[in-house]
Amino acid sequence: MAYTIETSLPETETSLALLKVLAENSFDSILVTDASAKGKIIYANKAFKKLTGHDPSEVIGETPRILQGAATDKKVIDRLTSALKSGKKFEGKAINYKKDGTPFIMYWRVLPIKVGKKIEAWIAIQREGSVI
């Protein structure tokens, strides 16, 4: 039998509390966007601020494009866009920019959050790569 959060912690409140602790204490940046075509940010954890310099409260309602700039590889963004449109996961790396304009290499994984077959939101797990 596979062990999952649902089987290990069947109480919804306990599962939600566990996920909150995981997200808030992760070393990796976690960003959640809505499932709209614009993909507006609905959640960012504390590690997002450490990675990008953007306070989570500042980015709610923005799009992750606030991290892109002149050196962001358009081909990678096109691959991401294609994956999102087809409802598939994405993994990649690109040059992004911190709030102060400093470029950095970001590795990230984007996954759909599904309820049944409907995508309700997207989660991006991000970390910094080699310094430019």
From TrEMBL:
Signal peptide: none
Pfam families registered for this protein in UniProt: PAS_9
Domain PAS as annotated: residue spans: 15-63
Domain of life per record: Bacteria
UniProt-listed InterPro entries: PAS, PAS-like_dom_sf
Gene3D superfamilies to which the protein is assigned, alphabetical: PAS domain
Record's keyword terms, sorted: Chromophore, Flavoprotein, FMN
Name of this chain's protein: PAS domain-containing protein
The organism of origin for this protein: Zhongshania arctica
